[in-house]
């Protein structure tokens, strides 16, 4: 083989490794592309899982809030029922006490009117009853039970019970001219309405 032929052969042989290296280098690109795709798919899967967990957490949170609201409503309802029961018991007891106070007043009113020559025993009895009544009313007021004489005030159906009407030239129509019993309140709430006589115009008779 001549020198020129050897040179040509060496040149061809040296080019083969370069082609193989190029081929291997080109082939190494594919695994890199596959790894990038797998990484993208994995990231997308993780994001999807996170979103799913967030949704589940939100559902659990909503359920907890609804359950807490229902429990709070139940507690409030139970508290109101207890308060209503307590208030009903107190009102019933207060009405009984008020009835006793009214009976005491009727007893005082049934005594003879004060007179200069009245029996000293009657005077002492009246003074004793009136002193007892004052003490009784103070105790009631201390516990939130108050009475009010509505005589002279306008009739109010929310606080008064009209037992009769009476023609009057001295009072405007609808004015209370006589009260048989006072208006009773418990902690500023109506306990028992007053029984009253209301004035009406004479021309309406």
Automatic annotation (TrEMBL):
Keyword hit for Cytoplasm: yes
Classification via SUPFAM superfamilies: Coiled-coil domain of nucleotide exchange factor GrpE, Head domain of nucleotide exchange factor GrpE
One of the Pfam families matching this protein, by short name: GrpE
GO cellular component, one term: cytoplasm
Biased composition, class Polar residues, residue ranges: 8-18
Gene: grpE
Superkingdom of origin: Bacteria
Protein's UniProt keywords contain Chaperone: yes
Name of the protein described by the UniProt record: Protein GrpE
Gene Ontology biological process terms, A to Z: protein folding
GO molecular function (one): protein-folding chaperone binding
Primary role: Participates actively in the response to hyperosmotic and heat shock by preventing the aggregation of stress-denatured proteins, in association with DnaK and GrpE. It is the nucleotide exchange factor for DnaK and may function as a thermosensor. Unfolded proteins bind initially to DnaJ; upon interaction with the DnaJ-bound protein, DnaK hydrolyzes its bound ATP, resulting in the formation of a stable complex. GrpE releases ADP from DnaK; ATP binding to DnaK triggers the release of the substrate protein, thus completing the reaction cycle.
Residue segments, region Disordered: 1-80, 147-175
Entry similarity comment: Belongs to the GrpE family.
Keywords from the UniProt entry: Chaperone, Cytoplasm, Stress response
Native source species: Commensalibacter melissae
Subcellular location: Cytoplasm
Assembly and interaction partners: Homodimer.
Skewed-composition ranges (Low complexity): 39-48
PANTHER family: GRPE PROTEIN, GRPE PROTEIN HOMOLOG, MITOCHONDRIAL
């Amino acid at each position: 083989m001549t020198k020129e032929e050897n040179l040509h052969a060496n040149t061809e042989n040296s080019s083969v490794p370069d082609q193989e290296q190029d081929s291997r280098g080109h082939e190494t690109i594919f695994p890199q592309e596959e790894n990038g795709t797998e990484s993208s798919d994995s990231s997308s899967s993780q994001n999807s899982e996170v979103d799913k967990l967030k949704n589940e957490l939100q559902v659990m949170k909503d359920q907890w809030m609804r359950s807490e609201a229902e429990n709070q409503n139940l507690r409030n309802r139970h508290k109101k029922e207890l308060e209503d029961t307590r208030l009903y018991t107190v009102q019933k007891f207060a009405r009984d006490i008020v009835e006793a106070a009214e009976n005491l007043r009727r007893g005082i009113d049934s005594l003879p009117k004060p007179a200069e020559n009245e029996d000293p025993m009657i005077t002492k009895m009246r003074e004793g009853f009136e002193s007892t009544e004052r003490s009784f009313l103070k105790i009631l007021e201390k516990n939130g039970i108050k009475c009010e004489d509505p005589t002279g005030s306008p009739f109010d159906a929310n606080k008064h019970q009209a037992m009769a009407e009476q023609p009057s030239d001295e009072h405007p129509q609808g004015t209370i001219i006589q009260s048989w019993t006072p208006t009773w309140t418990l902690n500023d709430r109506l306990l028992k309405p007053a029984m009253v006589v209301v004035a009406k115009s004479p021309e309406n008779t």
